[in-house]
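Hi Y.,

Following your request, here is the sequence exactly as I used it, all 201 residues.
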Amino acid sequence: MRAYLAGPEVFLPNARDILDRKIALARDYGFTPVSPGDLAVPETETKRQRGLAISAINERLMSSADLIIANLTPFRGVAADIGTAFELGFMCARGCPAFAFSNSTKSHFERASRYYDGALRLDHDGRYRGPDGMSLENFDMVDNLMLDGGIDSRGGTIVTRQVEADRLFVDLTAFEECLRIAATRLLERAVHAAPRETANS
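Below is the corresponding structure, written out as C-alpha cells. Let me know if you'd prefer a different format.
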C-alpha cells in the first residue's frame, strides 16, 4: 500500500535527512512511501506560481496514495501544521485510511489554554472562553475535533509521545509506533477481506 507521509518536516534545515529516515521506516513496515518533496518542482516565473506548482504536485502524490500517516505535532502555534491538516482532510475525503502521530501529549484544549495565558472563564453555556469571548474546544482530543474525528471514523488512531523541545520534529519513535499499528490493522483488514477457500475448491 502506498502511504502518504504528511507533516511539517519539509521545513526543517535537515529536511531531506528526516524525510529519508521516515521513508526507510515506512518501507520496513511494508508500505510504499509517498513523501512531499519526492518530485522536482518545475521552474516558474513567480513565487506564487512556484507555490501553486508545489500544491499541484502534492495533490497528485496524495491521489496516488492508499492511506495517510500525518504528523500532527503542534507547529508554529497551538495546532498542527495547516498544510498537513489540509492533506489529512484531502485523504479522508477520498475515503482512505488515516493515521497520525504527535510528539506532544498535551491536548488541544491544554495548548489553546496557554494561548490565553490561563485567563479562561467557564461560561453559563458550559464552555470555556477566553477574554476575547471565543470558546475553546474541550473534547480531550489531540487537535481540532475534525482531525481526530476524521482519523477515528476511518479506523485509524493517533499515537502521542512527549518529546523534548529540541527533538520535537526529529524524534521518530511515535511515527514508528504509528507505522506498526497501521501495518497491523491494514494487514488484518486485508486478510478478512480476502475470499476464503471452501472445502470443495
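DSSP finds six helices and seven strands in the chain.

Thanks again,
Q.
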